[in-house]
Amino acid sequence: MLVDSHCHLDFDDFDVDRAGILARAHAAGVQEMLIAAVVEAHWPRVQALTAEYPGVWAAAGVHPNEPAAETPEWEHLLAALAIDKVVAVGETGLDYFRSEGDLSWQRERFARHIAASKATGKPLIVHTRAAAADTIAMLRSEEAAAVGGVIHCFTENWGFAKAAMDMGFYISFSGIVTFKKSVELQSVAKKMPADRLLVETDAPYLAPVPQRGKRNEPAFVAHVAAFLGALRGETLEDIAERTTANFHALFKHAVAI
């Protein structure tokens, strides 16, 4: 069994064939998946999908690239996190690549999400791009280690991975690790301790080889797991067993209701 630890099945990209996507995922051995919200307006849609489909979990948060006005009210965030199948806080973090100017509001939003994680005991799903130093600094200063979480769609170096793991974070690899030019990322994946490893699609983005260029979907996480197994000298079954166990070790609220 595999778990897609990060996807966006609530996106309009999947409206035409969402049931088929779930069926293909199950056929590929992907029995569970976590939908990470990116905007508050989609929280009800994400929660509805978790209610409709067994094995589908949710996170509540607002992506760092959403405008400053989209930062969720504290009470709204806590209310969303009180729902049983909402098992994590996010997608949150820092992204200096797509946002410009004074980004103090982005750091304030990240701090609010970290505080919500600590208040609820639900771990963080962290996005970071072109903001590595500030991401680690904020995780430290806001004491995110009290709850931990995952650095999703990991693209940083070993130093970043080690710093995050030292705070109790897991590292999740997406289809990017299968790309031919991802040499440094592959070296990080080979070094990773097995008990901190997760796999994801980030669907509909970043389809792995051999599906690159297509709309990504949870079934394709099997390609990521197979690639990691070959890279690390392990079987697909080894990677599947370990990453599924890691998912449930991190997201302790992801239990059958």
From TrEMBL:
It holds the Pfam family TatD_DNase. A divalent metal cation 1 binds at residues 6, 8, 91, 202. InterPro entries: DNase_TatD-rel_CS, Metal_Hydrolase, TatD-like, TatD/YcfH-like. Keywords: Hydrolase, Metal-binding. GO terms for molecular function: DNA nuclease activity; hydrolase activity, acting on ester bonds; metal ion binding. CDD domains: TatD_DNAse. The keyword Ribonucleoprotein does not apply. GO terms for cellular component: cytosol. PROSITE patterns: TATD_1, TATD_3. A divalent metal cation 2 binds at residues 127, 152. Belongs to the metallo-dependent hydrolases superfamily. TatD-type hydrolase family. This is DNAase. It comes from Acidithiobacillus ferrooxidans. The lineage of its organism: Bacteria, Pseudomonadati, Pseudomonadota, Acidithiobacillia, Acidithiobacillales.
